[in-house]
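*** Residues and shapes ***
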Amino acid sequence: MPHPPDTIAAPATPTGTSAIAVVRASGPEARRLAQEIFGVPPLPRVATHADYRDAGGRLVDDVLFTFFQGPHSYSGEDSLEVSCHGNPFVTQKILEDLLARGCRLAGPGEFTQRAFLNGRMDLSQAEAVMDLIHARSERALAAANQQLRGALGQRMQGLIARLLDVLAHIEAYIDFPEEDLPSEDCNRVTSELTLLARETDRLLATRHFGELLRDGIKTVILGAPNAGKSSLLNRLVGQDRALVSPEPGTTRDFIEERILIGPHCLRLIDTAGLNTEPTELERLGIIKTYDRVAEADLILLVLDAARPTPPLTAPVLDALRRRAAITVINKTDLLIGEPVSVAPAGTTVVRVSALTGAGIDELVEVVTRLTDGFQQEVGEDLVAVNARHAHALNRAQVSLQLVITQLSAGVAVELVASELREVLDAFGEISGKVDNEHMLDHLFASFCIGK
């Protein structure tokens, strides 16, 4: 993609009334704009107090402006940032003036796209910018910060370097077709490729954890009618989000709320009660409950401590076996003696009273411990690949396994080298070392304006 020759401008802060707002311009005209608007030669990285007057000489606002000289700027090129009062009208007037002075309105993610094109960051770091902006939990924030600092890019560069060593070794024999790859060299290559495939698998295994970080852990609250599911939701959320009534079957559809538990973001989903003799409306709600259970990462099975455990269907029992699951024995404030309900085998048991709050702290501790276990170990760095990374890693893994099989079968060296170049291309896509204009345009179009 050719380097954009023009200067772009856009608000760098969200629309709305606030104490301050920032309008950013980036490109070859940024220095001229600073001097023309404020009447002084701009000093790099020095915040300067000045009046902002438009091209007609009219006072717009009392501002601070900062000039960043490329390549020592976010975008890697000359940039101007104007901090004004956070009145949307003022922000718009400054933006209109910059456009009138020759700037072009920036597209979504165009500042970050220029940072990538100017070598200020690799593609995985550029994606981490959006992850950082949208992080909803401590774990998500930590993962985004590590990726922004190049954790994934550095890991991929390590894999690429090892793969290039293997390719160089193999291609040395392509230059001398009369030579066969010695068996000891073939074994060494196969061993190295097996290690690369294993590391690729470890990175792929973090995809689901990445989804949990970005979207929240799907936590389904499940149980019979009137077991206290909605009361538990309200207790965990900290407000009356769901209607609570002594009448069974109050919840006919699912209700979803996001909360923070420990360092994790949970998507709490309160579902329709599993009534053994449902009305037609309840039956439709139960069908939706089964759909949510099938997608769950964590299940909270709520039982009434004073009632026998209701019969659980095969799909529910199967989900409890396959998913992280906690049996929450509720209404302990009404209990005399031991609970009547019995937790399904294999689930962690916590006794609570959603009404009084007793046992909720213990439940939070258990949830935190279970959700901590969702992280895949990939070394010291908190790496969580996204869907684009996973697609490239899957391509690489398929080619790696094919090469390993080919080497075992004695396939010609030049065919093996060709397949390994496919692996190299797939690895390169993750950090953006492969020039793919369509992929880059699609990726940066998902960014917000001004970033």
Q: What stands out?
A: Residues 8-122 form a domain with the Gyrase A; domain 2 fold (CATH 3.30.1360.120).
